[in-house]
Amino acid sequence: MELLFLLLPIAAASGWLIGRKERRRPSTPERTPTFSRGLNYLLNEQPDKAIDVFLKLSEIDTATVETHLALGALFRRRGEVERAIRVHQNLVARSSLDHAHLGLALYELGRDYMLAGLFDRAESLFEELVERQLQQKRALRGLIEIYQAEKEWTRCLETAKALQRLTQRPLGPETAHYHCELAEQCLRAGNVEQARSHLLDAQAEDEGGVRASLLQARMELAAGDPGTAALLYRRLVQRSPGYLPVMLPGLLECWRELGRESVTAELWALFDLHPSPPLMLRLCEAIESERSAGAARQFLVQYLSGRADLAGVQRLLELRLSGPSSGAEEDRALLDVVSHQLAQQPEYQCGHCGFEARELHWQCPSCKRWDSIKACEPDPITEPPILRQRKIA
Ligand SMILES: [Zn+2]
Fold first, then answer.
1. What is the Cα–Cα distance from 316 to 294, expressed in whole angstroms?
2. Is residue 224 part of a domain?
3. CATH classification at residue 253
4. Three-class DSSP category at 258
5. Which structural domain range is residue 247 located in?
6. Best CA proximity match to 377, nearest among 346, 354, 344
């Protein structure tokens, strides 16, 4: 049924074209019985027979090219990539194809290859398009997608620069991430100087980029300068508090290196700024060790009064179980349920496509956007539960 609906516009357009061309020319491929037979096969859900008919059409003109392109796109959208490849390959092989349509068909074939995971073939098609100045921007974008998937960051940078030259528009944050990826590669290889150079480039591309500053703080810490690292972290917290969960381990390490005996006050200051679950857990831990388990429980009760946060409930139950409380059996049962629920929850989520993750990805693995994944926040409890219950009922 879906195919039928999708094809109706094509069929209608063909009909219109047939009518229009009838007035102009005596004969076109789409008014031939062969073309109609192809359409019939499609409408009867016999796509392979339809493809065979279309591929055997001796003549291809603008109208039939459009139909072929629409068909190929339709097959690809339905995940029938082999059929899409057949249609597009047939188009590309036609010597009668004009320049513009050849570019379109080559690009579409490249997208088919990408979907089929044949990156090498897609890459050479996109390179050919760039060279022949056909569909250049889309081909460069396609190449960037391939290099990103293959983690070829230098080639990502080169291609992004070519695209920038063509569009006269800066890519900013995206290129900064390529430099950050290269900096991380250099750090893994022990090449600190080169890493620093990439960081400077990243900061030049995207001045307020969180990732480059985080990397810099990590490098300062590794180089034995926890003071500078702590300062960088503090600035980052002020600027982008949503990234606190990923900064927290580094910040705590700075304080440890600096010999801070008490971190409760520091954590409270951060908590006031951005009360996220990971920070709540660290603060609770600090209150327990620097003051008492009772004070930690009190803190949690306060925290939970405004937030539907299972991590807080879990910690509270753990504290109750480790202390001299009654009803340990009930607490244990509650803890099991809460822990189970908590394990199902994502810690991070893409704000664009909703992809859920247990760790931070700078590029969303699903929609491939950069900087779109953020730490999840617990829902605020704005009304007394009893009122909410009544509304649901
Ligand atoms: Zn996404």
1. 10
2. yes
3. 1.25.40.10
4. coil
5. 172-259
6. 346
Positive or negative: CA dihedral 85, 87, 90, 96: negative
For the segment 77-105, what is each residue's pLDDT rounded down to a tens digit?
989 999 999 999 989 988 888 899 999 99
CA of residue 111 to ligand 1 center, whole Å: 20
Ligand 1 centroid to Cα of residue 367, in Å, is 4
Give domain status of residue 202, yes or no. Answer: yes
Establish if 318 belongs to a structural domain.
no
**Whole-structure pTM over 0.85, yes or no?**
no
b/e per residue 265-275 (b: at least 16 CB within 10 A):
ebbeebbeebb
Whether 276 maps to a domain, the answer reads no
- CA atoms within 13 Å, Cβ hemisphere of 364: 19
Total domains in the fold of the chain: 1
Distance 371 CA to ligand 1 centre (A): 9
How far is Cα 380 from Cα 243, in angstroms, rounded to an integer?
19
Residues by chain with Cβ below 5 Å of ion ligand 1: 350, 352-353, 355, 364, 366-367
